[in-house]
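Now for a chain:

_____
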Amino acid sequence: MLLSEAWEKYQLDKKIEGYSPLTLKTYCFQYNLLLRFFGDIDMNELTSEKLIEYLIHAGEHLKPSSLGHRVRCIKSLFKWTHDEGFILKNPSEKLKEPKLGKRIPKFLSELEIEHLREGCHTSMENALFEFMYSN
């Protein structure tokens, strides 16, 4: 099955499942990148190595979170195509998402805390605020 045929069937199935239009739009963007890299290839010709090569090429300029999203989109498409019997082997099975670094929490400045304190309209809001931000 050609990549474009698989995408059309996958997209219709996900619409029926109730995927949000925004999710489908982002998946479509990822599909177009895959299509641009490989062309309208027979999906049975794609191997894990070719997909890894694509991800390495694409990942040179992506943050780990963006690369992880790309991996999830590819895995979803290929898993569905395999589960539906359109391809014999799922080449995305071995793909792993990149590890994400832990984010350092951002703290409010004293001025920002004071503005929030002044923004409390009721004694209940003030009590909750003081409870949350007490030292």
User: Anything to note?
Assistant: The mean pLDDT is 90. The chain has two domains: 3-83, 104-135.
